[in-house]
Known about the structure:
Order of helices and strands: EHEHHEHHHHHEHEHHHHH
Distance between the termini: 29 Å
Largest sheet: 3 strands, parallel
CATH topology of the largest domain: Rossmann fold
Radius of gyration: 22 Å
Bound molecules: tryptophan
Strand order of the largest sheet: 1-2-3
Oligomer: single chain
CATH superfamily of the largest domain: HUPs
Helix content: 55-70%
Number of helices: 14
CATH class of the largest domain: Alpha Beta
CATH architecture of the largest domain: 3-Layer(aba) Sandwich
Amino acid sequence: MKKTVLTGIKPTGHIHVGNYIGAIKPALALAKVADYQPTYFIPNAHGVTKIHDGSELRQLTYGSAATWIALGLNVNKAIFYRQSDIPEIFELNWILACFTAKGLMNRAHAYKALVDENHSNSRKIDEGIHIGLYTYPILMGADMLMFKADIVPVGKDQVQHVEIARDIAESFNKIYGPTFVLPESKIEEDTAVLPGLDGRKMSKSYDNTIPLFCEPKELQKRINKIKTDSLPPDSPKDPTTSILFMLYKEFASEAEIVQMQERYGRGISWGEAKHELYVVMNRFLEEPYETYKELMASPKKIEAILEEGAEKARAISKPFLQEIKEKIGLR
Ligand code: TRP
C-alpha cells in the first residue's frame, strides 16, 4: 500500500519564496517518491477565515493552483484538488466536531495568540474572533482524516494542528473501532524558518517577502533590499549567517554552492553576492513564471485540472464518508 502524503497551503496571500522553500519545494520532492501517493489541495475554505472578498479569494485560489502546476507538480500522479469541491470534507467536519473536546480548541496556538493579543490590548478576549477561526483545526482534521493521510509535510506552526487531528481521530476510533488513520507531521528542519528581507521570518504580515513569481526587475529590486552587514567588500564573510547564502543554496547546484562558499571565505562584496543570487533564482523561476502567467490568463485550464482532481478525490471521500455515516447511525 502506498503511503498518503497530504498537504495544502491556505490561499490568503500571494505565494512567496518562504512558502516555496518551506512548504512547496519539500512537498514536490515527496510527490516524486515512488511509494507515496501525493494528495495536495488548495484549502480555500480555510481561506474564508481571513479573506472576505469573493473575487480576491477566487484569484488567490487560482494563483495557488497555478503555482503548484507551474512548479511541476505531476497532476497525473498526484490527487490535486480544491477543498470546496469535496463536500464530504464539510460533512466530516461536523461529525468530527462532535468528537472534539472544546478544551482542545481553547488550547490551539492560533486561537490562543488572538486571545492573548486581545488581552494585552485590553479588549474583550474574543473580540474579532469568529467561530470559523476557533474551529479551524477541526476542518483541518477533516482534510487529513478524510483521505487517511499518513504523512503531512507542514511548517512548525502547523504541527499542533496535526496533533489535534490525531486526538480527534483517536476519540472516534475508541468508540467506533479503527476507522481513521493517525496522521504524522513532517517538518523540514533546516528550512523551517526562512528569514525575510529584514532578517525576521519571511512572512506576509511583516511585508518582508520575495514574491515567488514576479518580473525579473522586481525580483532584482527585492533581492537588493535584503539586509546585509557593513563588512567591507573584500573581507571574508560567514555564509552560514547570510540570508543571501541561505537563499542561494536553495536554487543553486551542488558545485555552485561549494564555489560560492569559497568566494564568501575569500571575500565577496554583498553587491556581487546579490547579483549571483539573482542569477540562480531567475534561472530557476523564469520558465515556471511563464507557465504561471499562461495558466492565470486561462482559468478554464486551471478549472479543468482541478475538476479532474476533484473526481479522483471524491472516489475516495464518497465511499469513506458512507462508511463513517453507517458506523455512527446517520445511515
Ligand atoms: N493550515 C494550513 C495553512 O495554514 C492549510 C491546511 C488546511 C492544511 N488543511 C490542511 C495543511 C491539512 C496540511 C493538512 O496553510
